[in-house]
Amino acid sequence: MNILMMYTSMPHTTGAYLEKALRKVSTVKTCGPTIADWTIRAWDLESIADRVTPHDIDLKEGTLAEVKKGLGGFRPDWLLFVESGVWFDMPILQDPSLPKACYLIDTHLSPADHLQIASRFDIVFLAQKAYVDIFRERLGKPVFWLPLACDPEIHRPHDVPEAFDIAICTSPGKTDRRSRRLARLGIRFNVGVRRLFFEEMARFLSSSRLLFNSAVKDDLNMRVFESLAIGKCLLTDSVPGLADLFVPDVDLVVYEDADLVDRVRFLLDHPEVADRIGAQGRKKVLAHHTYHHRARSIVRILSEGVSFKTQGVDHVAHSYV
């Protein structure tokens, strides 16, 4: 299958991880703008600026003519747009001969905008399960739940000394719920908080006995899958879709604010329990939730896309694709 993949080129995003996986199961040509220098500075991404690379078709003007010139002799079977947080014009969506799919990640932050964007595509993948039924009802087209994932080549254990009781890679605000939870933990435990990416992130997380996640507006985020791949016991709050993928107290630990401190203390006092859960969580995520799994799901769904467009589909998203 030939896929024209479109997203703003940023090395730490879902698009970049998915591109890597899709290239192993299909023929891919990428298209889109490159993250601007001012965005790198504004988002505090200077540490990974050297990893930024332009797409096969590096959009400068954003015109249809520019895209078609870049395609050359490449004939895509599908266009796949992946949200990266930086939007850009896609005049190629006006081409009625090219089937189009999108993968939207942060629907929890702007559901109305995402609904409007999704209306321009033939098939829609959503990272957040809570919105699948809503989008299917509003759009009347195939909408699939495609959770985020991990890259085992990057998100893996490192043999380093354990320096923290519990850790997270994030940039918390001063007043958000995540910061308040971390402050509570910091009073009682040795908490590690860093903003790191790729191998540095994996090494840092490996240096903690436990790992921590706190969702934003109930999103099932990248951090869940990446942390599980490290092989340390992950504590996370409950969000839609989590229990469909992982078993609480087997693959990971689900906390509420009322029992967060007690759960951390129990796991630190019983390292054999934490180690068992950490190992099982890593086993589960490697077996079912890598970007290779997601890439194969996308190719399978797109391969069946002609029948969806001609016959319709009544897909009930009880589980991910």
TrEMBL record:
Family annotation (InterPro entries)? YkvP/CgeB_Glyco_trans-like (IPR055259)
**What name appears for this protein in its UniProt entry?**
Spore protein YkvP/CgeB glycosyl transferase-like domain-containing protein
Q: Which Pfam families match?
A: Glyco_trans_1_2
Tell me which residues make up the Spore protein YkvP/CgeB glycosyl transferase-like domain. Answer: 194-299
